[in-house]
Amino acid sequence: MPYPRAHYYVLVVIAVIAAGFWPSYFGAWDAAPWQFHAHGIAASLWVIMVFAQSWTAHHRQLPLHRAIGKASLFLFPFLIGGLAAIIDVTAKGFVANADPVRQMFGGSFLIGMAVAMAAYVTVYYRALKYRRKVWTHAGYMLTTPLILFESPFGRILNMFMPGLIIAGIADLGRIMTAILWSMALELLFIALVWWKCREKASPFLVAGGFIVAQMVTMGLMGDLPVLKMLLAALGQVPSIAVWGTGFAIGALTSWAGWKAGLRTPRPAEEAPQPA
Question: In the chain, what's the furthest Cα-to-Cα distance?
Answer without folding.
Answer: 82
